[in-house]
Write a structure and sequence with these properties.
By secondary structure, this protein is mainly α. The chain is 37% helix and 0% strand. InterPro entries: DUF7501.
Length: 62
């Protein structure tokens, strides 16, 4: 995993993990599979998600 601030990322490509750069087969289910298999990315995703939670109406569905 690269040294990337988990909250300050440019998440502009759903086919690539914004934290480690790995290719994601499917921006939805494939991403969830990716973070389940990569604890560092999952931790970064959770930090990012907590940061944007107030910006998103309702709660995320996973």
């Amino acid at each position: 995993m690269t040294d990337v601030d988990p909250v300050d990322v440019d998440w502009d490509d759903p086919q690539e993990c914004p934290w480690c750069g790995a290719d994601i087969a499917d921006g939805g289910a494939g991403f969830m599979d990716h973070i389940e298999a990569n604890p560092e990315c999952e931790e970064a995703f959770e930090a990012w998600r907590e940061n944007v939670a107030d910006d998103v109406g309702g709660e995320w569905m996973a």
